């Protein structure tokens, strides 16, 4: 028997607000099946982690669209503008990208980097005023190897682009809203949608709303949690053998920050206790029979 099968929808409902019961009866089965498919269904830490993450990301155990918030929207006319590429300042101008430590990024020639495809040819105007022609982009700033590239299909397609090739349009500068958070784990950003499309075999670039389809959203949970290093990182943070568990770092493995940390922590502990109680009940039943 799978460990994940020890928890039914009624058990999960006790870990959420009362309004989540209907959603849990509907959506727990596909999550349950996905945990089995990825073999996470025998890992007590990952089962509890999945439940706690869905609690923190969605509140009511349903694949949903991300809501507007100060963290994702810098101005009223640019919903989810913080996810746009390139990054923009509140007044709509192109902003220099920063590394993970918050330091300004520069390319191999020491020039400021404004997009994941490299420099930008028109820093005086706003993003809406810039040239959307991929060939002019590279003609203005040099060859692709001199520009930092981060998992961009457009950048790969642009290799060898020239006057005889049809111009490849740049990524829409207002794609932040299009690729806002969706699903049980709030898949966010064009790059993540692009990778997820390949991994789960569904075109989420042309139809990002598919990330809210219950079956696809469940597949995204399994895909994301089994990415290289994820399980090891989470287990290292939440192992019972740890002197002090690092719930903040475990939460960041999916969210990248501390959003919903308290609800995540409380739900993880409750799910862990529920699994422990089921194990105790099973041992008692086996002893009695």
Q: What share of the residues does DSSP label as strand, in percent?
A: under 5%
Shape: elongated
Tally of contiguous helical segments = 11
* Strand tally: 2
Enumerate the strands of the largest sheet in spatial order, edge to edge or round the barrel.
1-2
Helix-strand string:
HHHEHHHEHHHHH
Helix content: 40-55%
- Rg, rounded, reads 22 Å
Keywords:
mainly alpha, 1% strand, elongated, 289 residues, two-stranded antiparallel sheet
How would you sum up this structure, described in words?
The chain is mainly α and about 290 residues long. It has a domain at about 5-60 and about 215-289. About 45% of the residues lie in helices and about 0% in strands. The protein has helices at about 10-15, 20-35, 45-60, 135-140, 155, 175-180, 190-200, 215-225, 230-240, 245-255, 260-289; strands at about 65, 180-185. The protein has a two-stranded antiparallel sheet with strand order 1-2. It is elongated.
List the helices and strands and how they pair.
Blueprint: H1 9-13, H2 21-37, H3 44-58, E1 64-65, H4 134-141, H5 153-157, H6 175-178, E2 182-183, H7 190-200, H8 214-225, H9 230-238, H10 247-255, H11 261-288
Antiparallel strand pairs: 1-2
Helix pairs in contact: 2-8, 3-11, 9-10
